[in-house]
Design goal:
globular, 9% strand, alpha/beta, 329 residues
């Protein structure tokens, strides 16, 4: 009798606990089949959270290959402890990873190397805005990914500090292991400023470039150098190989809407202080108070007016109409 009672109140063994969990899951019903179809499309944080829901989804997340082919670590995971814990968890799972996209300031050279060591077959490494990385740390990662003829095909390093010409030359040396410079140049598409802002970083390969930065002809800094869609600039480039306006955005102003180089006499300013050319400035609708337009990237600054047609920018609303009932957001 006492033995039976003691067994009744004793803690469950690991085997008994797991079998109990499985019975509970069966009683509750398996997840809908549609959930398994969306796993490959989930962002990283949601994918990891899904693996904690139940045993069926956990097994699906860990055994399915598709969700782990392209890993995107977004800037929202910017807490150091959270980021490194997630990266190490992902790195241990993603054995067949093709693309790493890390856009977090907390990632360090050591952390990146640990990720690369577990996934030496990755063919794309995108680390834009990772200000915690150093050029030498990136070079070590690229060198690791280029060993044993597993050549890295694409690289993004825009925003990493102190990147010099010699660093880029070293990176190009590893990236051009299996392809000649002439082959790469033949595949390149013009890089236009306004298009790139709307472009998804992990689709960088569609530009046909192996690395996103180069040495700017004017400032000699390692930055993204943009082409110009202006007809006269494009004609000069095609006929005479002139690159008067092919520079980084810090050396020559570019229109946020059309990407063209903007001459001083055509320079216009939007509500958001972004640069616009005269043509785009005239085409965009204006604020009823300051007569300034908003570029497409900052359309959220427009506040519609309930009493009249048109809109009012957020700056004028806060300065002149705060508390008024005539303006509705």
């Amino acid at each position: 009798m006492e033995i039976a009672q003691s067994r009744e109140h004793a803690p469950l063994s690991h085997k008994e606990y797991n079998s109990g969990q499985e019975e509970e899951e069966k009683e509750a019903g398996s997840p809908h089949e549609a959930l398994f179809l969306v796993l490959a499309y989930l962002p990283l944080f949601e994918l990891l959270a899904m693996s904690e829901v139940c045993m069926s989804l956990r097994d699906a997340v860990e055994k399915d290959i598709l969700p782990w082919l392209n890993i995107i670590v977004e800037s929202t995971l910017n807490l150091r402890c959270c980021l490194m814990r997630i990266l190490m968890k992902v790195a241990s799972k993603a054995k067949r990873l093709r693309t790493w996209l890390i856009n977090c300031a907390w990632i360090s050279d050591r952390g990146l190397q640990r990720v690369i060591d577990k996934n030496p077959l990755s063919t794309r490494l995108y680390v834009p805005g990772c200000t915690g990385l150093t050029p030498n740390g990136v070079i070590r990662a690229v060198q690791k990914l280029s060993e044993h003829h597993h050549s890295l095909k694409r690289l993004q390093v825009n925003g990493i500090y102190n990147m010099k010409k010699e660093h880029l030359e070293t990176l190009h040396h590893y990236l051009l292991t299996n392809q000649t410079k002439q082959q790469v140049q033949q595949k390149q598409r013009p890089l236009l400023y306004h298009n790139f802002r709307k472009f998804l970083a992990y689709r960088w390969e569609e530009f046909g470039r192996i690395i996103d930065v180069e040495i700017c002809p004017r400032c000699s800094e390692a930055r993204m150098v943009f082409d110009c869609p202006r007809e006269e600039c494009r004609s000069k480039r095609e006929k005479y190989s002139l690159i008067d306006c092919r520079m980084c955005k810090f050396c020559i102003p570019r229109c946020e809407e059309c990407g063209r180089c903007v001459k001083p006499e055509d320079l216009e300013v939007a509500v958001c202080t972004d640069t616009l050319c005269s043509d785009c400035w005239f085409q965009l609708s204006k604020c009823n108070f300051c007569n300034k337009p908003c570029c497409g990237q900052h359309a959220d600054l427009q506040i519609s007016s309930s009493g009249s047609s048109g809109w009012i920018c957020g700056v004028c609303h806060d300065q002149f109409l705060t508390g008024s009932d005539d303006v509705g957001q």
